[in-house]
UniProtKB/TrEMBL annotation:
CDD domains, per the entry: TMPK
GO molecular function, one term: ATP binding
Chain residues that bind ATP: 10-17
Keyword ATP-binding: yes
Family: Belongs to the thymidylate kinase family.
InterPro entries: P-loop_NTPase, Thymidylate_kin-like_dom, Thymidylate_kinase
Domain Thymidylate kinase-like intervals: 8-195
EC number: 2.7.4.9
Originating organism: Pseudazoarcus pumilus
Alphabetical keyword list: ATP-binding, Kinase, Nucleotide biosynthesis, Nucleotide-binding, Transferase
Function according to Swiss-Prot or TrEMBL: Phosphorylation of dTMP to form dTDP in both de novo and salvage pathways of dTTP synthesis.
Protein name: Thymidylate kinase
GO cellular component: a single term: cytosol
Length: 205
């Protein structure tokens, strides 16, 4: 039986990363083999591309092409083999992030994104996408409190993240059968309970 594909999305600081392991634990508790990964990244080559994407300034279209190049490698080397083997893939970001950040945030022409998406993973979308929605002002406070050196995306201005957030919500509205928006302005415990209930309702019944 083919595995299921779950992705986590949201602006930087929305808190999604802290919930990914909770979902992986939920699945393992049900004897489901889990492949946990991230984008951009997930393979040695894709991780090298990630470093360029996060720290090297580049043309917008170069950025989009590299995002999808990393994704194609990730799909071929990890995601597609795992799903074919019956493992469930839990991934931190996927193509919805590219739509939100490059189309919504930076202004990439949507048709170019759609062409890349169709080329790189035609017919493949996550079975469930959880979008962690948060006011960019609150997200920025969380990122600053973490104390890590910001990458070039995290250094963007608040209006950039407002556009990214809006694009995520637009994407969710267009695909309600796949994407669930989660209010990320609550305690981790409350959010964990909600996302576990969503996963059970949507994929485990």
């Amino acid at each position: 039986m083919r595995g299921r594909f779950i992705t986590f999305e949201g602006i930087d600081g929305a808190g999604k990363s802290t919930q990914i392991e909770a979902v992986a634990e939920l699945l393992r508790a049900r004897a489901i083999d889990v492949e946990r990964t991230r984008e951009p990244g997930g393979t040695p080559l894709a991780e090298r591309l990630r470093e360029l994407l996060l720290h090297q300034a580049m043309h917008l279209e170069t950025e989009a092409l590299l995002m999808f190049a990393a994704r194609r490698e990730h799909l071929a080397a990890r995601i597609e083999p795992a799903l074919a083997a019956g493992r469930w893939v839990v991934c931190d970001r996927f193509s919805d992030a590219t739509y939100a950040y490059q189309v919504g945030g930076r202004g990439l022409i949507a048709a170019k994104f759609a062409a890349l998406e169709q080329w790189v993973h035609p017919g493949l979308q996550p079975d469930l996408t959880l979008v962690f929605d948060l006011d960019p002002a609150i997200a920025a406070t969380r990122v600053a409190a973490a104390g890590d050196a910001p990458d070039r995306f995290e250094r963007e201005q608040r209006d950039f993240f407002a556009r990214v957030r809006s694009a995520y919500l637009q994407r969710a509205k267009a695909a309600p059968q796949r994407i669930v928006v989660v209010d990320a302005d609550r305690t981790p415990e409350v959010i964990r309970a909600e996302i576990e209930a969503i996963v059970v309702e949507r994929l485990l019944r």
